[in-house]
Amino acid sequence: MGLKLTDEEKEMLEGKHGKATQKAIEIITTLGEIYGAGRLIPVTSVQIAGVSYHNLGEAGLEYLSEMAVDGRARVLTTLNPAGMDMLEWKKHGISEDFAENQQRVVDAFEKMGVVTTCTCTPYLIGNLPHYGEHIAWAESSAVCFSNSVIGARTNREGGPSALASSLTGRTAEYGFHLEKNRQAQVGYEIRAKLQNTDDFGLLGKAIGDRTSKQIPYITGVAHATTDQLRSFCASIATYGGVALFHMEGITPNRTAVPDITESVTDDDLDKARSELDDEAAEIDFISVGCPHASIGDVARIAEMLDGKQVSEGKTVWITTAKPTKDVAIKMGYYDKIEKAGAYLVSDACCAVAPLEGRFKGLMTDSAKACFYARGKNKFDIKIRTVEECIKEALS
Ligand code: F3S
Question: Which of helix, strand or coil describes residue 205?
Answer without folding.
Answer: helix
